[in-house]
Specification:
This protein is mainly alpha-helical. It is built from 13 helices and no strands. It is 80% helix and 0% strand.
Amino acid sequence: MQSRFVKFFSRRRNWSIPYVLFLVVFVVVPLVLIMFYAFQSKDGGFSLENFQRFINQPEAANTFIYSIGIALITTIICILLGYPAAYVLARLNSSTARVVVMLFILPMWVNVLVRTLATVALFDFLKLPLGEGALIFGMVYNFLPFMIYPIYNVLQKMDRSLIEAAEDLGATPRQVFTRVVFPLSMPGIVSGVMMVFMPTISTFAIAELLTMNNIKLFGTTIQENINNGMWHYGAALSLIMLVIIGITSLFTDSEAEEAANDGGLL
């Protein structure tokens, strides 16, 4: 028995079995259940009434559009703040860069609810109103490190000989950045966008705390429907969100690959 056990785990492919089981239980099964409930009526039969309800009710559709707008604003601000920070970090020596990166990552060790409550306390201390501005501030504060680190990781591993070759060919610093550095850093930007844009659409705790539940995001709508026992409609809303996120990720991946290829050709 022991020899069979040793022989079984001596094969490298068998070490992937726990990972496969984890994916099946916590990824595949939940997605199947979402699709099952989304296309099911209250009577248990196949139906598209949940999606028709989303289309016919302007409140849910408007909330979804508003959530996309908040996610886009948050993502753009994170790019504008995160890219320069990652670029500066990539130009520092390795020891200093590691320390600064650790300072960016350190707040992520604290639970997101604790960080959000601290943001609420900060706004109360400064006597600033809670609302849409506080919501965007809280989103950027919580997700900015997820934009900085992927970009920094790509910039740090970039082949410096490409920059030297561009400079030897007479390229100005601006041309080096726009034609070499920025296109080759697109995979990091895309990773950062996906890590910021996706959770921003589906989050609900940050919006509830920083707006005193006066502003609803799409994640809040899904949570309310599921908590109220409307599993079918909540599953349909979740599926709609997953489809939009999937389409967005495919589009961003293709754009990143094209930009990186263009940068390499230049």
